[in-house]
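Re-running the complex after MR caught last week's input typo. The corrected sequence lines follow. Everything else is unchanged.
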Amino acid sequence: MRPAASAALLAGLAAAALLAHRTASVAAIAALLLVVCLRAPPGRRRLYLVGALVSGLAVVLVTPFVETIGSHPLWTGPTVPVLGQLDVTSEELRNGLFQGLRLTAVALAFAAYALLLDHDRLVQSARVARRSVLAVALATRLVPTLERDAAGLVEALRGRGVEVSGVRGRARLLSPLLAGSLERALNLAEAMEARGYGRPGATRSPRPGWTDRDRAALVAAALLVAIGALWL
Amino acid sequence: MALARVRDLSFSYPEAAPALRNVSLDIEPGEVVALFGPSGSGKSTLLRALAGLVPHFHGGRFAGRVEVAGRDTRTTRPADLAGTVATLFQDPEDQVVFTRVEAEVAFGLENIGTPPAEIPLRATAALEAVGAGELADRPVAELSGGELQRVCLASVLALSPELLLLDEPTSQLDPDGAAAAIGLARSSGAAVVVSEHRPERVLEACDRVIFLDEGRVCENGLPDAWLPRDPDLPSGEPTGAAVCGLEAVSFAYDRPVLDGVSLEIGRGEIVALLGPNGSGKTTIGKLAAGLLDAQSGRVVRHGRACYLSQDPGRYLVAERADEEVALAVGGDLVRARVALSDMGLAGYADRHPRDLSSGERERLALAAVLVAEPDLLVLDEPTRGVDPERKDELVRLLRAQAPGRATLVATNDLVFAGAVADRVVSTIPEREAVLA
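Corrected-run output:
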């Protein structure tokens, strides 16, 4: 299947998760996307899966404390300045679970896009907004690049006998990682300019044509959005 | 008529001292020009000026005139010069746009408007020319530094430029790979300007040498340190009490790299580890320093080990140079400042490491491991991007400190290995063993 068709399917699933009204429907979409992500090599998928699941879990845990909905309190806590009285209702718990699953589903759709799609072919097949597609592809590559840079920093410190552990130790890496990314971005921009990027009259490598399977995937993506909005 | 004409070129980056001062030169069609000079002498800036990136991309103060193929670079954007001019930058990792090799090589061809049917043919031909035909479908992230450098060379050769600008094109290649790359550039028919810190790698292939110092073209020929030297590789026996020993060690990533390797490094000796790209030099260094665990066999180590990775200037974490160095000694800023001074960085203690030049960063990173006074020091390609004068300084420093420790240097630089080492060990894939 063409990467563009696969990307459309993933976008359709993410949109369906955002539009669906039932927790079970969103959970099913998230589970499906999790199965898709498990096709990626274990070493590469770990960071994405941990990121998706942890951020979803954070929403599940935080939502009951910042929302004030429902009339079936399960726990009533102290009064906190700004937030008011803390309590947890069954409605808040349900809504927290629903929002957490939504976020997880969207993050898993992105993870599948980042891990399993051929971004080069996606950029090459873009007929419109190629610059935007290229920018997204480069941004997607940032995650593994940052991962590699972080590993390099940890190794450089271990090479001096300095162990990196705990939240504080890892937090120390954030600033050099950001600075390194900015340096890389500048160097890449210069290299792209030198290779003619942005010049009028650019051509494209020959692309294989759309197959029936690709067209079916596009229709399925559109259906997913409609089904998500109307029935799920 | 000259292909490129530079007249009275002076240039300063924003808020910086002049990088080029009154440079005038001509590049004739088809000639190969070697550009030598110390770090910070303006070599990369001159290449950028020939590509139009100076001043268009970097800004700054530009005076004089640069014409390439009859076009004034002040009025022609670098993207419009692409195809006529092609540039291979210093660090291959920072110039890769796509995730797969074939798409990467096709990128420039697409931008300059090559007819679609020709793009795959020219990309494939360029990859085969650099001996990377089998890499076409590989993800870029899985390539070694040497393989990536060849892919980047293919990307510029595919454009069939009239002027080929190569900035340290062999920094990650072994001697055979470097000779092949320079030979290919020469045989492409383009005029080539190649900036290189290892004169012996390009002198034979070039028609002319330009030496830059402090932004000026020097007319007095090459300084002694830059004259090509034949490597004189020592072949001694292990000496001193063993500080580190690898006994029948094997290691594999996704493919086997080492199989039954043994090596001993004694206190007081410097061992140079030579071998082609991908033959396991870095892996041996990491095993010796304890950054990797052997999958079979045994590694014995006595005392503290420190390891300096390739391209160490990229991996600096602190906000000040002295704090960076102090990390290895529990924050002892006094020792850190002494170490900085030993590396010629006495006035840099309060500078941010990323504000330093690439050469200064390399020295800072070296100070950050030497300050710990390790019993075993492992250096991985320590002369990458280092000019011959700095290289001689590094040799003197390592030799002076050698008696107190065991030192293992993984390198592709034969001249450096010959100058610094007591003993040379080579990795030869066919024999799958380290030979003393």
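None of the earlier attempt is carried over here. The radius of gyration of chain B is 22 Å. The mean pLDDT of chain B is 88.
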